[in-house]
Design brief:
Blueprint (H helix, E strand, L loop, with lengths): L44 E3 L4 E3 L17 E7 L2 E9 L3 E6 L14 E4 L5 E6 L7 E5 L4 E2 L1
Antiparallel strand pairs: 1-2, 3-4, 4-5, 5-6, 7-8, 8-9
Length: about 150
């Protein structure tokens, strides 16, 4: 006994089919932000309510936070302090920086704290989301720091 079935696919229409985007204006965009070609799974841009931080080579006219001897591999803003950022680098160092509340006019070269504990490059830093001043790090020496 054979039963004949008809096949009628049911396609749902998207509820976003009438939504269209529009390009941002030039005054709401950032120019000269480098695109990384690194193979690391890191964030090369970090944003908080006051600042945007980008790793890599930028226009030499902008003031920078510079103090690592190797390439910076990750940056993260402190979720409890909008003026504190952590960075890690190929020089096996983690540095915590206090960003001035006023506009930076020159390069910042002195860090607030320098954390030592990894033997090889540090690839990832992450602030604890609910406890203040707790920073995790992970390095290529197979260690996780707290």
């Amino acid at each position: 006994m054979w039963c004949r079935m008809s096949w009628n696919p049911q396609y749902r229409s998207s509820k976003f089919r009438h939504v269209f985007g529009k390009p941002a204006s030039k005054e709401n965009c950032y120019d000269s932000v480098p695109i990384t070609h690194s193979v690391h799974d890191n964030h090369f841009c970090a944003v908080n309510p006051h600042f945007i931080a980008v790793t890599g080579k930028l226009d030499p006219h902008y003031p920078k936070v510079c103090g690592h001897k190797g390439n910076v591999l990750d940056i993260k803003w402190n979720p409890f302090d909008d003026f504190e950022i952590a960075s890690c680098s190929e020089d096996a160092m983690i540095k915590i920086w206090d960003i001035p509340k006023q506009l930076m006019s020159r390069n910042l070269t002195t860090c607030k704290k320098e954390l030592v504990g990894h033997a090889r490059r540090v690839g990832l830093v992450e602030w604890h989301p609910t406890a203040a001043n707790i920073l995790f790090s992970s390095g290529y020496d197979y260690k996780v720091g707290l």
